[in-house]
Amino acid sequence: MNIRLATPPEVAAGELRRTVDWALGTRRSIRAFLPTPVSSHDVTAILDVARYCASGVNTQPWHVHVVVGAAKERLSEAILRVYEDPSRMAALDEPYDYYPQEWISPYIDRRRKVGWDLYSLLGIEKGDKARMHAQHGRNYRFFGAPVGLMFTIDRHMGRGSLIDYGMFLQNIMIAARGRGLDTCPQAAFNAFHQVIAEQLDIPDQQMFVCGMSLGYADTSRVENSLVTNRVAVEEFTTFHQR
């Protein structure tokens, strides 16, 4: 498969804009998926169009490991064995600092709000560590999605390549929306990078970036009704005119 994008699609400009805006505006992190299979053709088509994102001097620094079926189940079980063992959890590290070492406002406020908004929908009260632990552990079963994506990058690449990688990930998520699919990008996998490398035979020169669940959203699940707040354009934009 080799999607060619040089020729614009034969759709009206207004319709094209609305379609792109719809895909961007409806992308959400889905935390409960249907078991409905996703064909390898669709996965390949999503990756095929996602590769057209920008990257510095065309480095294209991404590598994708697609896990489905028995391979996905083995990976989940290997991670969960560590997740349920406090001594092994204490020994974990992360391949890079995804989050800040010290949280400050307004970022800590946004983090807390999305966490408690989700727990509120699920009926998980503050202090209920057992249910919080169980809910977080659902990450490692890909929230029931039939497809898991594991992303790595060559360790020789600089931090700027992670900007390129972010655009690649966004392209995947938007291309999925265009096919009626949903995703959940997951930094929750990062602490388990060594387990993932062992299970998927990822070479040492490849650094783990993040994981992602891919599938059809289960719209009957209350957690999928969560819509996160976004700050207004005026709050993060400065126009310089003189």
UniProtKB/TrEMBL annotation:
<keyword id="KW-0288">FMN</keyword>
<dbReference type="Pfam" id="PF00881">
    <property type="entry name" value="Nitroreductase"/>
</dbReference>
<protein>
    <submittedName>
        <fullName>Nitroreductase</fullName>
    </submittedName>
</protein>
<dbReference type="InterPro" id="IPR000415">
    <property type="entry name" value="Nitroreductase-like"/>
</dbReference>
<keyword id="KW-0285">Flavoprotein</keyword>
<comment type="similarity">
    <text>Belongs to the nitroreductase family.</text>
</comment>
<feature type="domain" description="Nitroreductase">
    <location>
        <begin position="26"/>
        <end position="216"/>
    </location>
</feature>
<dbReference type="GO" id="GO:0016491">
    <property type="term" value="F:oxidoreductase activity"/>
</dbReference>
<keyword id="KW-0560">Oxidoreductase</keyword>
<dbReference type="InterPro" id="IPR029479">
    <property type="entry name" value="Nitroreductase"/>
</dbReference>
